[in-house]
Automatic annotation (TrEMBL):
Notes on activation and inhibition: Non-allosteric.
Encoding gene, per UniProt annotation: pfp
Site (Important for catalytic activity): K139
Family statement: Belongs to the phosphofructokinase type A (PFKA) family. PPi-dependent PFK group II subfamily. Clade 'B2' sub-subfamily.
Protein name per the record: Pyrophosphate--fructose 6-phosphate 1-phosphotransferase
Important for catalytic activity and substrate specificity (site feature) positions: D113
Residues annotated for substrate binding in this entry: T140, V141, D142, M186, G187, R188, E243
Length: 406
């Protein structure tokens, strides 16, 4: 191929730069020029590009730091691309930019909404007979893309959550008075991340005792009864709850009024706090809520090596598939076995992935809906394995410079 361009979109993760590293390493070996668009599709529209060939003298060192650095080196955006029959001019402008820069392939690293964008570009390209190849590269801590066993970024976030839960179990164990700790974890509709809290349990730790996912309707009365039952056995109750839990009527359990983003997704806030106040009101004992928030997706110091290695390989394979002539696709992970853990990389059509959501199977949640099954735990365990090596300076991790984003 002549030149290629890559961009990142949506919420950041600790592994999205590892995928970028894979795209760049393979692209620089096989293409004349490799461009990076700053801030997703917005950067393509404004031609706000970085040319990575200029990094050639220190490329291996750069790619090594990039792989372990959190968030999006190229910046991100949350721009919803309209259908081409709604706004043809945007597509004409984008393809004119591709033609001007002799772009043969465009790689978009992101989650569900990003796959919608790259899928629309691929469809429009097909409609006008464009030879440009469009390939999506998966990422999302939510782990909710279909057609793939799991998504880059999820394993590292799961590792952080499990570690944090174990550390909180140690912290809360020191008190003799009855108390409840509620930990709110990301997950609008899919409870994969919250399920990872179960990995904190070991030979001496049984916390968290209760785990609530959005796939099962949340009942406040049943919740209070669950808490009472645990308090009858111990003074220390720790609960993991998805931010997106909702009642049988579909109403989110929240402390604040919800708003919506440009994609129509509810911006959630306050499930943990709402349950904290409920416990205090109903049980009259000490209760605190902890919202992990964005730290669960950017804690690169505790990344999963399995996650980063797979993410880098998915980036490489995206370029290889494009070189083979594939377009309108996304590389996916197919699990072959749990023990020993083994995955292979294939690809699926973007049209089968975009705007679809993969939820936790009901059979992986206990009948009462307040915990996860061993099958879920066995699925999760391999994804958090392995530690990365990080260089430190002045006591802090050394990540890749992102001054170009300020």
């Amino acid at each position: 191929m002549r030149n290629i361009i890559v961009a990142q979109s949506g919420g950041p993760t600790t592994a999205i730069n590892a995928s970028l590293s894979g795209v760049l390493s393979e692209g620089l070996k096989n293409c004349n020029k490799v461009f990076g668009a700053l801030h997703g599709i917005s950067g393509v529209l404004s031609e706000n590009f970085i040319e990575f060939n200029n990094y050639s003298e220190t490329i291996s060192e750069f790619l090594g730091r990039l792989k372990i650095s959190p968030a999006c080196f190229l910046g991100s955006c949350r721009v919803k691309l309209p259908n081409h029959n709604e706004d043809l001019e945007i597509y004409k402008k984008l393809f004119k930019t591709f033609e001007k820069n002799e772009i043969d392939a465009f790689f978009y690293i992101g989650g569900n909404d990003s796959m919608d964008t790259i899928s629309k570009l691929a469809a429009y390209g097909d409609s006008i007979g464009s030879p440009i190849r469009f390939v999506g590269v998966p990422k999302t801590v939510d782990n909710d893309l279909i057609c793939t066993d799991h998504t880059p970024g999820f394993g590292s976030a799961a590792k952080f959550i499990a570690t944090s839960m174990l550390e909180m179990a140690h912290d809360t164990a020191i008190y003799e008075v009855p108390h409840v700790t509620i930990v709110e974890i990301m997950g609008r509709n899919a409870g994969w991340l919250t399920a990872a809290a179960a990995l904190a349990r070991n030979e001496y730790n049984t916390l968290p005792q209760l785990i609530y996912l959005p796939e099962v309707p949340f009942d406040k009365k049943a919740f209070i009864n669950d808490v009472k039952a645990e308090l009858s056995k111990t003074n220390n109750v720790v609960i993991a709850v998805s931010e997106g839990i909702k009642d049988k009527d579909g109403n989110y359990i929240q402390n604040d009024t919800a708003t919506q983003d440009k994609f129509g997704h509810t911006q959630l806030s306050g499930a943990g706090k709402a349950l904290e106040l409920l416990v205090i009101e109903e049980l009259g004992l000490k209760c605190r809520s902890v919202e992990l928030n964005i730290v669960q997706r950017c804690a690169a110091h505790i990344s999963s090596k399995t996650d980063l290695d797979e993410s880098e390989n998915l980036g490489r394979m995206a370029v290889k598939f494009a070189l083979e002539g594939e377009s309108g696709i996304m590389p996916v992970l197919k699990r072959l076995s749990n023990n020993p853990y083994k995955c292979e990389i294939e690809f699926s059509k973007l049209s089968e992935i975009a705007n679809k959501e993969r939820l936790v199977p009901r059979k992986w949640i206990t009948e009462k809906g307040n915990d996860v099954t061993d099958e879920m735990v066995q699925y999760l365990k391999p994804l958090i394995m392995g530690e990365i090596i990080i260089n430190y300076r002045d006591g802090l991790p050394v990540y890749e410079n992102i001054a170009h984003l300020y």
